[in-house]
Amino acid sequence: MNKNLLKIYETDASQLKGKALDVVIPKTILEVRNIVAKSRRIVPRGGGTGLAGGCVPQNGVDLVLDLSKLDIIGSYDKERRTIEVGAGVILDELQAYLMLYRLEFPVKPASHAIATIGGMIATDAVGSRAVKYGKTSNWVKWVEIVDGYGNLHRKGVTELSDYSGMEGITGVIVKACLKLAPIRKRSASLVKVENFDEVVAIVHKLKRDSSVSMVELLGKQVSEMLGLFEPDESGEVKSAYHLIIEYEDDSGMLNGKEYAELFEMRDKIGPMLSGGGYSRLEDPKILLDKSDKLVSWFEEHGIPFFGHIGVGIFHPRFDHDQEKYIPEMIKLVKKLNGQISGEHGIGILKRKFVEINDQKILRNVKKRTDPENKFNVGKVI
Amino acid sequence: MILLNVLRVIMVKNKITEAGRPADSRQVAGAKIEADNLMEEASEVFDSCIKCGMCKSLCPVFKVLKEEQVSPRGKAIILSDKIMDKILFECTFCKGCERNCPLDIKICDGVKKAREAMVLRGKGLKSNEEMMENIRKYGTPFGKGDKKDLEKLYCC
Ligand SMILES: Cc1cc2nc3c(=O)[nH]c(=O)nc-3n(C[C@H](O)[C@H](O)[C@H](O)COP(=O)(O)OP(=O)(O)OC[C@H]3O[C@@H](n4cnc5c(N)ncnc54)[C@H](O)[C@@H]3O)c2cc1C
Ligand code: SF4
Ligand code: SF4
Known about the structure:
The structure holds 2 protein chains of 2 kinds.
Chain A: H1 3-6, E1 20-24, H2 29-38, E2 42-45, E3 62-66, E4 73-77, E5 82-86, H3 91-98, E6 103-104, H4 117-123, H5 130-133, E7 140-146, E8 152-156, E9 172-179, E10 181-182, E11 187-193, H6 196-207, E12 212-218, H7 220-225, E13 241-247, H8 256-275, E14 280-281, H9 291-300, E15 305-308, E16 313-318, H10 326-335, H11 356-369
Parallel strand pairs in A: 1-3, 2-3
Antiparallel strand pairs in A: 4-5, 5-9, 6-10, 7-8, 7-9, 11-13, 12-13, 12-15, 14-16, 15-16
Chain B: H1 2-13, H2 25-45, H3 60-65, H4 72-80, H5 96-100, H6 107-120, H7 126-138, H8 147-152
The structure holds flavin-adenine dinucleotide and iron/sulfur cluster (2 copies).
């Protein structure tokens, strides 16, 4: 590819910049196998929506393998309610197709309009409906992967963890068989809550309600930025948290157009904060009962946040001056027995924060699956 | 006839001669300055772009080709670096990208300015120049063609 255009593949939604040897965009699995067999260093790339720099090539030696053209939506198995798809299929394109059968892939990251199935499996994407449907890997029956020698393997549920959530360091996912769920009638409510203890109590209650498919939190700063503060009867404007609650029945206040508008707004929060200078995003995961300490820490430091509170994932956003607080936040998360990344992965950004024991485990998997050390070198571990 | 006049106006505005290229050296220098300014303006359009990729989702060109370089984010990345490349002509100006950009970036404005700059620098598409030449000579974008074919052409 010409050098000017190479730049496009040397970055992703993390905005980190790297250097690529070249870019290839194979159309078939056979092409992927030949390219992998012949190349020394490979960086698999899907939609390039990753937020940890996972598909950013390094040092001019990495070949970017863009899998976007493996976009065939294959056979639908009515009995098993599964579908086979190429790794490059974009989630919303799959959802549009599945409408025919009144089915859907129920995991929904906010990047659903652009993220690929391969990228979602590689990062084990979570998303806003995790409280009901969990992670991407819960909905994968098998994956087909290409190893460092160019061989094709099918890996079932027992071996899936060698590839899902491994951020492309163990092999290239080329195809997957996905489990599907029926499309539900959905409604939503936007609820204002004044203090965080109350937020925790409401979320606990909602998690026991089987009709609830999503509980999202907007911190006070984010609520204000979205213009959600309205004066009360006395005319006073009080800051408050907001919860977005999605129900799989008619319990919510918002339906149809209003429901769609609410989620359009929700999907744009991250990019909007980025555009406002809060460009560094983190994704710690923590037990709900311990989250008050983290939230107080965000508020003390003036860090806007939102997140999938139903599953304990928070998205604090740091501006340039606040980035220096990130190691302190990670220390706090570890002290509270939380995880440093709940959904976006480690990539390049969080590599230095991975615990030694976790590094050992990841290294063993890497050695076993990619003895040639070809895939995503310098990422995760 | 209307179409011809419109084209003439565009060409005069772009300081392009009948051959589709700037004429003398003074004009060449002027065109270069104007092109540089346009590229500067095009790159400024993307100052606040965060490379999130949301603009890709409604882009018909990306949908068909599935190549990041023709996507609006691809165009944003090269224009941020003031790079002229013919991929900038792979855009229908449908504004699908702008509808989905969370930061309301006027992507089409940037691409349009860059295209103007490319034409000024003689880096426009050959096929576009041929088309204009055909219109000038034969009154249709397709060239000489069969007389019967010409009768089938309608102008909006
Ligand atoms: C606006 C926005 C909102 C987001 N919201 C969410 C959210 O709600 N939940 C969430 O979990 N994430 C979210 N993300 C992050 C991102 O969208 C997800 O991580 C997504 O799953 C990445 O998919 P992708 O196709 O873009 O992968 P890429 O960004 O291209 O790649 C991500 C990683 O996976 C690897 N990879 C990609 N494809 C393959 C493959 N076929 N085989 C092997 N490895 C591969 C890459 O090497 C890289 O390490 C968001 C991102 C943005 C920009
Ligand atoms: S949607 Fe807007 S901010 Fe995001 S990459 Fe496209 S132009 Fe940039
Ligand atoms: S205006 Fe151009 S870049 Fe934007 S969506 Fe339409 S074709 Fe794509």
